[in-house]
Amino acid sequence: MGRLIYSMMTSLDGYTADADGDFGWGLPEDMELHRYFEEITRPVRTFLYGRRMYETMVFWETAHELPDEPPEMAEFARTWQAADKIVYSRTLETVSTARTRLVREFDPDAVRELKAGDGDITVDGPGLAAAALAAGLVDEIGPIVAPVVVGGGTRFLPEGVHLDLELVGERRFAGGGVHLQYRVRS
After folding, report:
1. Using N-to-C axis directions, what is the helix angle for 108-115 and 126-134, rounded to 10°?
2. Which residue, of 70, 75, 135, 160, has the fewest CB within 10 Å?
3. Which residue numbers delimit the Bacterial bifunctional deaminase-reductase C-terminal domain (predicted)?
């Protein structure tokens, strides 16, 4: 049975993007972190995206073709391309990446069916993660905390969520980031 994992870069004060929508402060030049992203992404069978997160991630469809692309980023691109993607959007007309399908509504029962298969699934983006958390679908939460405070913006976790968590892993990076891995207790 697969796990549904919510893991994103977040500021120390719990935001995935600042008040202007910028998330460039998230350790972009840390190649150790990029290698780690590829490592933890390798077992992912399916990515679940909302429209905005999908539009951000489309970059990885061709990133491996860019000249002078660091090997860490090219390898992540190939790993990302190998996984299936589901984009939930009422406004997006089409998807432009391989192995991707467009679904109009988030259906918790359909995600439960996905989880019944092998391989991990990630829910990417705080809006879609909020829906998955509300439906009790998330098995693991993994904030990757950047050493920055942004003072407001898009929250990593939605208001009012209450979860009992067990710390099952942590990893520190030379650039100051820390990945905390929590299992959601039933």
Report:
1. 90
2. 160
3. 4-171
Picking from 7, 12, 27, 6, the residue whose alpha carbon sits closest to that of residue 152 is 12
| Residue listed under structure tokens 């893991």 | 7
* CB 81, CB 99: distance < 8 Å: yes
What is the rounded end-to-end Cα distance, in angstroms, of the chain? 16
List, in order, residues 6 or more apart from 162 with CB less than 8 Å away. none
Q: Rounded distance, CA 83 to CA 79, Å?
A: 7
- pTM over 0.90? The answer is yes
Q: Where are the beta strands (DSSP E) in 89-173?
A: 100-103, 120-124, 140-141, 144-146, 153-155, 165-172
Strand partners, 113: none
Enumerate the H helices of the chain as residue ranges: 31-41, 51-57, 71-82, 108-115, 126-134
Q: What is the pLDDT of residues 118-155, one digit of tens each?
A: 999 999 999 999 999 999 999 999 999 999 999 999 99
